[in-house]
């Protein structure tokens, strides 16, 4: 058992802990610190305010001294906002956005006349790239809800025509040739990143992890999302969940062992330490160079910090791309 921390010189501190991802762990940590008290009723007037599932903090009236959210985190955690912001940033910084994220478009259901330029750009990209599959994601969804794989641009537009008018979607060129675990199964990397304010320091957590699919990847079977999405929400319902890896999870060290066993297309052995980690670091640097000016311009109270879960994929030729960013990662 970990030893109890030393008591600070300050008096009793009060915390508002709302239910959600990781809140039990936080409550246990506070219980080992007897100078902390958990408020019986939630209040934004406390020493620590913690929302475990994206609960909104009252940035106008709240007076909490430490808050586990950035006031405008939706600018990177909501899919359609991230796609728009990262493209705008890349254009200004003269960076090829396709080196950061898959080629992406933001389309709004039932608003063709208002987004002619975006739809035209999407159609042109689909024709030029010859992509077999496009992945359509609700702009603010999670856990794989509402995701659709479409075989061509026409199928994408037909799918959007059936959605609620005015709802936003991110349409991305699907990574059809990902690096596969054991040459068979998809994976992605869940990388934890902490951002603090007002100094806006950004930290990557070394002991993050890899999420795997338990079914054999088949690009010609877009209807079975369990072959394409690593989300626990999808994978844990399968009878094969945990068959290959405990909880469909691997460490970075275990991932390197898989890299060692199966070379890239060009015969090279991919190095997590020398190639994948630096690539994620580069992308994360760009993401927060984009986000921090937005954060600085937004209202704040006291000190803030936020833990994010960034999902990365590795392609069959060793490229690393950011897929999405999650707030309150489990």
Radius of gyration: 21 Å
Give the assembly state of these chains: single chain
Topology pattern, helix = H, strand = E? EHEEEHHEHEEHEEEEHEHHEE
What ranges have pLDDT less than 50 throughout 5 or more consecutive residues?
none
Q: Characterize the biggest β-sheet.
A: 10 strands, mixed
Overall outline: globular
Number of strands: 14
Q: Compute the number of helices.
A: 8
What portion of residues is helical?
A: 25-40%
What is the straight-line distance between the termini? Answer: 23 Å
The overall pLDDT, averaged over residues, is: 91
Kindly estimate the percentage of residues that lie in beta strands according to DSSP. 15-25%
Class by alpha and beta content? alpha/beta
Provide a descriptive summary of the structure in words.
- This protein is α/β, with parallel strands linked by helices.
- 27% of the residues lie in helices and 22% in strands.
- The chain has helices at residues 23-31, 74-77, 79-93, 116-129, 153-161, 232-235, 252-261, 272-296, and strands spanning 13-18, 36-38, 48-51, 66-67, 104-108, 134-138, 148-150, 168-173, 187-197, 202-204, 209-212, 249-250, 303-314, 320-327.
- Strands 1, 2, 3, 4, 9, 10, 11, 12, 13 and 14 form a ten-stranded mixed sheet that branches. Strands 5-8-6-7 form a four-stranded antiparallel sheet, with helices on both faces.
- Strand 1 (13-18), helix 1 and strand 2 (36-38) form a beta-alpha-beta unit.
